[in-house]
Amino acid sequence: MFVQLIKFVFTLVGAVGGYQSAVEIGLPGLNLNKNIAIIIYMILGAAIGYVIGGVVGRRLARFLNWIEDSLQNIPISELAIGIGGLVAGLVIAYLIALPFALINIPVLRLFLTGLTYAVFAWLGVRLGLGRRGEVKEMLNLDPAATTIGAAGRGANDKLLDTNIIIDGRIIDVIRAGFLEGRIVVPRFVLHELQAVADSEDSLKRGRGRRGLDILRSLQTDLNFTVQINETDYPAVFGVDAKLVRLARETGSTVVTNDYNLNKVAQLEGVKVLNLNDLANAIKAVVLPGEEMVVKIAREGKEPGQGVGYLEDGTMVVVEDGLAHIGQSVELKVTSVLQTPAGRMVFTKIKAAEHI
Prior knowledge:
Layout: H1 2-25, H2 34-72, H3 76-97, H4 106-130, H5 132-139, E1 158-160, H6 162-167, H7 170-175, E2 183-186, H8 187-197, H9 202-220, E3 226-229, H10 239-250, E4 253-256, H11 259-267, E5 272-274, H12 275-281, E6 291-299, E7 306-309, E8 315-319, E9 328-339, E10 342-354
Parallel strand pairs: 1-2, 1-4, 2-3, 4-5, 8-10
Antiparallel strand pairs: 6-7, 6-9, 7-8, 9-10
């Protein structure tokens, strides 16, 4: 419908232009009645307008659809801030451009005026969106982004990072009731997750889509409200750094399984819940001297060693177990080592008989 309207407008303009041309210049070299010349020019003008209108209409329709799709993905609060910045920039440009009216050179006056409006309109939008976090906080447009003391509502908020979303175990933890308070996902984490889902690498693309499915499951399967926080820090490089700053300002807790993020957050004084620490904490306790039966799965790092695993994933290092790979062997625990990556159990074969 839109394209047809554009075609009609261009056809009408072409016909009017043809009429004006016929009145002004007629058909040179042809001895035709003036009315006939007008009709010919109007038909030619209308035909040219129809063709150009079709091309312009289709391109304009695609452009408007692109703008509409882009605006659909922009939160209404950010759109309002961007428009406010644009208006402020135009007002400042108007005041600055007032003295240009004294310039006697029309071309220079027009150039300087247009350049001033363009620059300050761009700066207004850019600065408005760049400081949108502070603007929202000042106008209370985004309660989740408001700086809250440790004793306030933000103290119970749980900020999810990209890795913990992709990991997927967060669903089971929430279902079991081990997390209280609101689940908050910052917009910049969503952007990183979407970038991973759009990656050309098939493995990364699959991980990103899994993360998006996890978030959808939180809202549908568990009927759990996931709060999207719109705060951003354009001057801060890296999603992890932005996450730590947001957690520090809101008094929230970061939920992650990233070892490096865990350490950085602790250095910044931010509370962190590391899912790997929880997984290690609930593993069965094994003490030296206990006996167990484990299937040796592969060769160890040291000569003659074999490696097996308990049901909870704990690595079991078997002394002189290389010759028993693929067999279930009765073992005796000699020592237990707790590492940042998890617990390691060191054993030796109890007897030569295989189970």
